[in-house]
Design brief:
19 strands; ten-stranded mixed beta sheet; six-stranded mixed β-barrel; single chain
Length: 409
Amino acid sequence: MVQLRRQILSCGTLLNQFQPNIRWSSSLQVRDKKVIQLERSFKYADLSVRLAGPEQLQSKPNVSVLTFGKYFTDHMLKIFYHGALGGWQMPDITPFENLVLHPASKALHYAVELFEGLKAYRGVDGKIRIFRPQLNMERMNNSAMRTGLPTFIGDELIKCCCRLISIDQEWVPHSTASSLYIRPTLIGIDPTLGVASSESALLYVILSPVGSYFKKTDEHNGVSLLADPRYTRAWPGGCGNYKVGSNYGPTIYVQREAIERGLHQVLWLYGENNEVTEVGTMNIFMFHINDDGEKELITPPLSNGLILPGVTRNSILEMAREWNQFKVTERTFCMDEVCQLLLENRLLELFGSGTACVISPISYIEFLGRPLHIPTLKHSEPVYKKFLQHLTDIQYGVIPDHPWAIPIE
């Protein structure tokens, strides 16, 4: 520890910049000048809380006007990481406030950052639950390793998030049509130019009460898509399977083109065979009658690095395999197959899945000037609705004590 403090004192510039945030976590242990990764994680036991004053509290929006990501709660979680100062500092819950970043911060220049998205739900029994947060923590740490940012113990962040939600619990909508979106974000804040891993980082969590991702009319009519082979979201060996901001910014131009054509989202294709990968910011599923006359649910596999390992995607696959009512397969499929199945009346449904949108039926695709009308909404009991109902029953406590829904005390 003496050696560590000497190292700190030698880092005058960095110390002066972040002096207000330096609080060592009790988890820090130095052994032979090497810090064991798990021991460098922050700990929930070290969490401090500074509540917002009456003048900082905001009025809560009516549930009926909630849109996605427009409103934010009164508090946030912040955890600094400084390699030169021993690693993770102690976590703090503070009033919601703007961040102060050096103009040379790596997150601003080289997209050295990542984020996650999960939700808290107020159940029919009044309890607040979060949905499968361990999967988000696993994915967040995988993204951190890919971007050269520090990893942490997922359970410690989950406990910190639960405390944050408990403080802002009145922001969790009293509605089974709304929820509280949780956005953990990890950014590189090294004040130096140069494409390299960041020795300093900030992990913060903000909360936002949200309604439906799509408009109600979109939900009733289904999602319409632009499938244009000129544009690619991800490629083998890239970062399509990590939740980093650089996957999303370059898609805005194409999304704007879809909207200008009167469509909602983009169906992302890859390669000469127009392999179907994702839809907008969602994973995609196809329900069809296969060559053996069986009903089959398929979704692209995670093995090629093109697909984000979605939590909702994982949940749908687990539910479908547990129900054992139709064949379930993870494999690639291309637009030629979609067109052929549609021509032969064997394409039953297409739908997207994700935390923000949950499950969204697809009703139309514009592909190479061809209008493809997908019959997802024409069935009396579509399978996507069965998945959606079962998921929301878990999330809102209609199915009590389900292991996927973690109650917040």
